Amino acid sequence: MIYGRSLFHIVASLIIFHLSGATKKGTEKQTTSETQKSVQCGTWTKHAEGGIFTSPNYPSKYPPDRECIYIIEAAPRQCIELYFDEKYSIEPSWECKFDHIEVRDGPFGFSPIIGRFCGQQNPPVIKSSGRFLWIKFFADGELESMGFSARYNFTPDPDFKDLGVLKPLPACEFEMGGPEGIVESVQIMKEGKASASEAVDCKWYIRAPPRSKIYLRFLDYEMQNSNECKRNFVAVYDGSSSVGDLKAKFCSTVANDVMLRTGLGVIRMWADEGSRNSRFQMLFTSFQEPPCEGNTFFCHSNMCINNTLVCNGLQNCVYPWDENHCKEKRKASLLDQLTNTSGTVIGVTSCIVIILIIISVIVQIKRLVKNMSKGNRTLTRQFSRRCLNLPIMSYALSEGQELQLTLQMWQRTLKTTTNCGDPLPSAFTTTTVGPTCPVRRAAAVTSAQEMLLS
Ligand SMILES: *[C@@H]1O[C@H](CO)[C@@H](O)[C@H](O)[C@H]1NC(C)=O
Ligand SMILES: [Ca+2]
Ligand SMILES: [Ca+2]
């Protein structure tokens, strides 16, 4: 399937059916044996420019006890127009409490409601404000009618009228898998999927190993036009890339981690021509549910992850259990080895260690004295954490003071920014932060040195 074309198809339908234990006019029904079945919810034909869907059996009577959900998705910068056929009849009731059609302006059942319809008069033309319409047809346990047939078209979003005829979007898809991996917007440029000035609509398909699910954790996220979802967003789908499986959509200033129910995750990033500095970086971790089988690590929550992810410098668990006590573990194994050798070796080694410690303490004191005499106050907090996450380092500096921060990163540079937004990009990096600019968490730091400049 050619991706560019598929954009112009409506992406998906979600058809949900369940026997509802409807109560009506005092007739109470047993709801204990509520069953879930996948049953036809009328026909739905889709074209590049729109489609048609109907209630079950239309134009014959729809069956009782039915709920159907239709979600329509247009390509970015398009809207949806929905028309109901005049051959229309849905059991009338006060406020359409019984059978009805409900239309919402968005992809979710909690999106803003446009209207609830029933009776003999077909609803007016409905226009979406964005790319989605969520439509539910509901029939209770008694009194059925003909139902409805609805037709929809995709139309250019008037918000983008000024841009004229838009260029087709470049094809942009990625496949990823394995126990963990990093999905990031820079892959678009690295792999030559689009030029720096083109709008992009990219999808990353993440496939976990069999019987595994996926946990997604944001390492970096920033939308250039934040809160403008029509211009840029990052979306997460759970199970397929169809709109019914849309799990979360981020376009504000924050993005939350996402736990998927399935082993197929789809990340989608949309950025228009003026939002190409929008960026994100996400760590995915494949996990299985407990009880944890051999060769997996228990995350103290409901996750079992591949053993190779323990102490690898990246937090794969929801809480950093996989990266805690890494140093201690290494020490313990060292001790184990030592007990196997003779006591003299231990004695010699500890002597050398003690001498080295004394020497380094002397050197440090000398340096400190030197710096103080120079007038610089040095806060040499030396971290030496190969695996541990560095805690949030906050500095409350007074006016005029500056802090020079030198971080030596191990393996990968992650979420290391000052709150003023300047990233610390390279593996070994020095930056100066001004007053009240806390440094956010840095993972996989081997050492950090802070020097207060007066
Ligand atoms: C863990 O990851 C390694 C390397 O990708 C793989 O070979 C191995 O099968 C995985 N183990 C489990 C238990 O999934
Ligand atoms: Ca009814
Ligand atoms: Ca890890």
Automatic annotation (TrEMBL):
GO CC term, one of those recorded: membrane
Compartments reported by the entry: Membrane
Main subcellular location: membrane
Transmembrane segments: 345-365
Record has tRNA-binding as a keyword: no
Cysteines paired by S-S bonds: 41-68, 292-304, 299-317, 311-326
Matching Pfam families: CUB, Ldl_recept_a
Alphabetical keyword list: Disulfide bond, Glycoprotein, Membrane, Phosphoprotein, Receptor, Repeat, Signal, Transmembrane, Transmembrane helix
Signal peptide: 1-22
Domain CUB: 41-155, 172-287
UniProt xrefs under InterPro entries: CUB_dom, LDL_receptor-like_sf, LDLR_class-A_CS, LDrepeatLR_classA_rpt, Sperma_CUB_dom_sf
Top-level lineage group: Eukaryota
Molecular function (Gene Ontology), one example: ionotropic glutamate receptor binding
Membrane-related topology note: Single-pass type I membrane protein
GO biological process assignments: positive regulation of excitatory postsynaptic potential
Protein known as: Neuropilin and tolloid
Biological source species: Lynx pardinus
Source taxonomy: Eukaryota, Metazoa, Chordata, Craniata, Vertebrata
